[in-house]
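We were asked to recover a plausible sequence for a given structure. The inputs and outputs are reproduced exactly as logged, with field labels preserved.

PROBLEM: sequence recovery
POSITIONS: 95
GIVEN STRUCTURE:
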Protein backbone atom coordinates (compact mmCIF):
# COMPACT_ATOMS: atom_id res chain seq x y z
CA UNK A 1 0.00 0.00 0.00
CA UNK A 2 2.85 2.37 0.86
CA UNK A 3 4.57 1.61 -2.42
CA UNK A 4 1.38 2.43 -4.34
CA UNK A 5 1.01 5.72 -2.44
CA UNK A 6 4.59 6.61 -3.28
CA UNK A 7 4.01 5.86 -6.96
CA UNK A 8 0.87 7.99 -6.99
CA UNK A 9 2.74 10.83 -5.26
CA UNK A 10 5.58 10.51 -7.77
CA UNK A 11 3.15 10.64 -10.69
CA UNK A 12 1.41 13.69 -9.20
CA UNK A 13 4.75 15.46 -8.75
CA UNK A 14 5.76 14.71 -12.32
CA UNK A 15 2.37 15.89 -13.55
CA UNK A 16 2.77 19.18 -11.66
CA UNK A 17 6.23 19.61 -13.20
CA UNK A 18 4.84 18.99 -16.67
CA UNK A 19 2.04 21.48 -16.11
CA UNK A 20 4.50 24.16 -14.98
CA UNK A 21 6.68 23.44 -17.99
CA UNK A 22 3.66 23.68 -20.29
CA UNK A 23 2.75 27.10 -18.87
CA UNK A 24 6.32 28.32 -19.41
CA UNK A 25 6.34 27.01 -22.96
CA UNK A 26 3.02 28.68 -23.71
CA UNK A 27 4.38 32.01 -22.45
CA UNK A 28 7.52 31.58 -24.53
CA UNK A 29 5.43 30.68 -27.57
CA UNK A 30 3.30 33.80 -27.14
CA UNK A 31 6.39 35.98 -26.79
CA UNK A 32 7.96 34.45 -29.89
CA UNK A 33 4.76 34.99 -31.86
CA UNK A 34 4.74 38.66 -30.87
CA UNK A 35 8.39 39.01 -31.88
CA UNK A 36 7.63 37.33 -35.20
CA UNK A 37 4.73 39.74 -35.81
CA UNK A 38 6.98 42.71 -35.10
CA UNK A 39 9.74 41.35 -37.33
CA UNK A 40 7.27 40.65 -40.13
CA UNK A 41 5.83 44.16 -39.90
CA UNK A 42 9.31 45.67 -39.87
CA UNK A 43 10.29 43.56 -42.87
CA UNK A 44 7.21 44.71 -44.79
CA UNK A 45 8.01 48.31 -43.92
CA UNK A 46 11.61 47.91 -45.09
CA UNK A 47 10.47 46.24 -48.31
CA UNK A 48 8.11 49.15 -48.97
CA UNK A 49 10.97 51.57 -48.33
CA UNK A 50 13.23 49.66 -50.75
CA UNK A 51 10.55 49.80 -53.46
CA UNK A 52 10.00 53.52 -52.86
CA UNK A 53 13.71 54.26 -53.01
CA UNK A 54 14.09 52.19 -56.17
CA UNK A 55 11.28 54.15 -57.76
CA UNK A 56 13.01 57.39 -56.79
CA UNK A 57 16.31 56.17 -58.26
CA UNK A 58 14.51 55.20 -61.46
CA UNK A 59 12.83 58.61 -61.63
CA UNK A 60 16.17 60.39 -61.17
CA UNK A 61 17.82 58.23 -63.80
CA UNK A 62 14.91 58.76 -66.17
CA UNK A 63 15.01 62.51 -65.59
CA UNK A 64 18.74 62.71 -66.17
CA UNK A 65 18.61 60.44 -69.22
CA UNK A 66 21.32 58.15 -67.85
CA UNK A 67 19.49 54.84 -68.29
CA UNK A 68 21.22 52.17 -70.32
CA UNK A 69 19.23 49.82 -72.54
CA UNK A 70 18.87 47.10 -69.91
CA UNK A 71 17.63 49.59 -67.33
CA UNK A 72 15.18 51.07 -69.85
CA UNK A 73 13.83 47.61 -70.61
CA UNK A 74 13.51 46.76 -66.89
CA UNK A 75 11.77 50.07 -66.17
CA UNK A 76 9.45 49.60 -69.12
CA UNK A 77 8.59 46.10 -67.89
CA UNK A 78 7.89 47.39 -64.39
CA UNK A 79 5.69 50.20 -65.74
CA UNK A 80 3.79 47.65 -67.84
CA UNK A 81 3.27 45.58 -64.70
CA UNK A 82 1.93 48.62 -62.83
CA UNK A 83 -0.41 49.42 -65.72
CA UNK A 84 -1.66 45.83 -65.76
CA UNK A 85 -2.39 46.01 -62.00
CA UNK A 86 -4.22 49.32 -62.48
CA UNK A 87 -6.29 47.82 -65.30
CA UNK A 88 -7.21 44.86 -63.07
CA UNK A 89 -8.24 47.19 -60.26
CA UNK A 90 -10.38 49.27 -62.62
CA UNK A 91 -11.99 46.12 -63.98
CA UNK A 92 -12.83 45.01 -60.45
CA UNK A 93 -14.30 48.41 -59.64
CA UNK A 94 -16.46 48.32 -62.76
CA UNK A 95 -18.02 44.95 -61.94
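RECOVERED SEQUENCE:
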Amino acid sequence: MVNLDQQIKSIQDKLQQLLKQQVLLQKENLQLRKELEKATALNAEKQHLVVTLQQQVDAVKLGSGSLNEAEKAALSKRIDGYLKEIDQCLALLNT
